[in-house]
Structures are given as C-alpha cells and as structure tokens.
Write a structure and sequence with these properties.
The protein is built from six helices and seven strands. It is of the alpha/beta class and 203 residues long. Helix 5 links the parallel strand 4 and strand 5.
Length: 203
C-alpha cells in the first residue's frame, strides 16, 4: 500500500460530508457484530481517523496503522487528547508488526485492501495477531469494473474491489471458523452505484 504521495495530498481535503457519512455507516455495521467493549482494536489504513473515531468508545486501546504521513498528521491532531488512541507509520506489506503491539480483539479496515498488492497475505498477518475469538472486518468495494477510481495506477489501486466469493474463499483458505458478508453502503458516482461490502472473519 505504498501510494503515500497520493494520500499525502488527499489528506488535506479527505474529511468531507461523504467520507464522514460513509464511515458512520461502516461503524454502525461493525458495532452490530462486536461486543460492547473490547480490550484492543486495530484500524488498518486508518487515514485521518474517521472510522477510529466512531469506534473510540468500543475499546480500551485503539491503534491506527497508516503509511501516509499526511493522513497521520490529521489522525494525530484528531486524537491529541485521547491517550488510548495511538498510531504506527508502517507499511505492513514490507515491514513486520512490532511484537509488543498485538494481539487484537478486533481488526477493522475500510477502503484500504484494494490498494494492497497481496490482500490475502495481509489477512493472514491479521489472523496471526488476533486474540482468541477475535474478529476481522474487511470493508471495501464490491467487485467493480475499474471505473470507480479516475486514475487506478496513480492512486495505487491494485484490485477492482472484491466479490463475496473471493472474500469467502480467503476465509476457507486461512481456516477461519466462520465468515459473514453484507453490503453496508453504496457510493454514487459516474452516474451509477458502487456497493461497499463487509467481510467478517471469526477466528
């Protein structure tokens, strides 16, 4: 997910009415499936912290993972008074997660997996860093035709979304105990609707 220059620039105007509304919907969908309170939560590809902020009351400790310094500047400013929220500037496709960071009861990621070169490998890494009975939520574009982003290469897009079948096949390949899927949001652009799916993985 090494597309930092694009997101460094985008960070300045990232928080708008649509992205706020979108992350509110994502958080509401996540909250339906997790306990009222957990010990530790990771937000992978946390951006400016819109989703982290919606989940702040759900965990004792929240850690954002992000590669874009521009995004993390906004993230750190948002949570400057929230001592239980921390972040790591790290590219997990190239670097290892520090051993003292996990394990996590809940790992969430929203609109980041289509930027990964190896999403299945990342999901496997997540699984290794889950607490017993932990859960992973992958929220991303439902499989699309490549028209969602105006410049796929320039924006670091490696996948045109993921179908339910693809997400479920990952669950079977990695040996999760169960898998659920639902469409949690629709983004309207290019005179059409793009569905946003959520895959839920149970350890």
């Amino acid at each position: 997910m090494d597309n930092r220059s694009h997101f460094d620039t985008a960070s300045k105007t990232w928080d708008n009415e649509e992205t706020v509304k979108r992350n509110e919907a994502f958080s509401q969908s996540i909250k339906k499936h997790i306990p009222t309170h957990v010990s530790k939560l990771m937000d992978f590809g946390c951006g400016t912290g819109l989703l982290t902020g919606q989940l702040i009351d759900q965990a004792d400790e929240l850690i954002g993972i992000e590669t874009s310094n521009g995004m993390l500047e906004q993230f750190s400013e948002r949570f400057i008074r929230a001592s239980k929220v921390k972040y790591l500037a790290i590219n997990l496709e190239k670097e290892s997660l520090p051993s003292n960071v996990g394990p996590f009861d809940v790992i969430v990621t929203a609109m980041a997996f289509h930027h990964l070169i190896g999403p299945l490998k990342m999901l496997s890494l997540f699984k290794r860093n889950l607490s017993p009975s932990g859960m992973i939520f992958i929220i991303d574009l439902d499989e699309e035709d490549g028209t969602f982003h105006p410049d796929n290469k320039g924006m670091g897009v490696h996948h045109f979304g993921f179908s339910k079948n693809t997400l479920e096949s990952w669950s079977k390949e990695l040996g999760f105990s169960s898998f659920q899927h639902e469409i949690v949001y629709d983004i309207f652009k290019n005179d059409r609707s793009y569905g946003i799916g959520m895959g839920i993985y149970h350890l």
